[in-house]
Amino acid sequence: MGLVVQKYGGSSVADAEGIKRVAKRIVDTKKDGHQVVVVVSAMGDTTDELIDLAEQVSPIPAGREFDMLLTAGERISMALLAMAIKNLGHEAQSFTGSQAGVITDSVHNKARIIDVTPGRIRTALDEGNIAIVAGFQGVSQDKKDITTLGRGGSDTTAVALAAALDAEVCEIYTDVDGVFTADPRVVKKAKKIDWISFEDMLELAASGSKVLLHRCVEYARRYNIPIHVRSSFSGLQGTWVSNEPQGAQKVEQAIISGVAHDTSEAKITVVGVPDKPGEAAAIFRAVADAEINIDMIVQNVSAASTGLTDISFTLPKAEGRKAIDELEKAKSAIGFDSLRYDDQIGKISLVGAGMKTNPGVTADFFKALSDAGVNIELISTSEIRISVVTRADDVNEAVRAVHTAFGLDSDSDEAVVYGGTGR
Ligand code: ASP
Ligand code: MG
Fold it and tell me: Where is the signal peptide (predicted)?
């Protein structure tokens, strides 16, 4: 039996009871004959509470200190979990990200893992320990400062360790039974997916599905580490994410994997842009120089009489202010009229590799939205995804309508959400 990496999210270890329940599950895995490495998140809403605290003492906390603060959350849970395991009569040792060899670049609050050197973890395992690692953190290669990987980064820690330790599987334990055909908090009839390809999972994650982070799936695909997303509250098989289904996951690839939605973005419209070469380049250079990632872009047909056009794009709401400031600064150089900012938008995406070979998916998607009375503001597509922007108020209704129209509704049990405040 091989090495298993298990990751437990904040809602699975929200209190002492949760920690004891998780400890028992870890010990059971060890008893099955596996070597076990556990990556753990901060308890419950600890990270949010620490962020609130930081903002109370300083409106813009310094990145280095902010990371130092946030990593404390995972240190608490890792130590408690190791204690709980020892209490069950098994050996366990906890390690910070730095001790576990998670080396990152030095971009505070959203560092990227550049290397993993898990020497101490190997030694701990060889000595018969269960190794517990604090998720979401590392140490920067050059300055040796403590860094964090961005919200939800523990999943990435788990996959990175699984790759470095050549694990059989990376199990991600969460508060739902797996990856669903839509967010079970919105669509009660969402179905659990038994197996999904890395490709489709990447698109779902990029489109706002919160079960797995995009970066984590990207990492898993690069190193070909199968991920098993499952609940720490039930004993059920969850969702396998891998290149190809194996053994018990033998299922046919669905045409449509699921519907994702995202209400974390805003839309900026640059009004009155001269319709000549170089304008779009100048606009997006200004935004890119501020390290802002944009999502969808639409340029309208220019009005022949004025020679002016409008360009709209979407970006994370959190970056909205900064983008507006940067564009205002470049206004006279670029030569547009004005900016419009709209944060009452939502995005709905339909994802599935099967749409490559099934004509009519797009038409059915738009029909479902129009039947639900939902107006479409922007459209973008990839080979295996169609996304639209609508009013934020319409999103939940639109997701349910599309889910039903594509026959994704389950006819049995309602999806269960075991924990978490969704905060
Ligand atoms: N505790 C961190 C967060 O809440 C990391 C994680 O949970 O993965 O974002
Ligand atoms: Mg968390």
Answer: none
Instruction: Return d(Cα 375, Cα 128) in angstroms, integer.
Output: 59
- In the CATH scheme, what is the homologous superfamily, with its name and number, of domain 249-423? VC0802-like (3.30.2130.10)
Strands ordered across the beta sheet of 378-382: 258-262, 345-351, 385-391, 378-382
What single-letter DSSP state applies at residue 406?
Answer: T
Could you tell me the pTM of the whole model?
A: 0.89
Question: What number is the average pLDDT over the span 33-49?
Answer: 97
Cα-based angle 14, 133, 92 (whole degrees, multiple of 5):
90
* % of residues, the chain, pLDDT over 70: 96
Q: What is the CATH superfamily name and number for domain 3-174?
A: Acetylglutamate kinase-like (3.40.1160.10)
CB 18 near ligand 1, within 6 Å: no
Contact 313 CB / ligand 1 (< 6 Å): no
**Residues shown for the chain:** 423
Distance CA 297, CA 295 (A): 7
| Residue of 7, 45, 47 with the most ligand 1 atoms within 8 Å of its CB, for mutation | 47
Specify the ligand 1 atom closest to the Cα of 73.
Answer: 1
Convert the pLDDT of each residue in 101-143 to its tens digit: 999 999 999 999 999 999 999 999 999 999 999 999 999 999 9
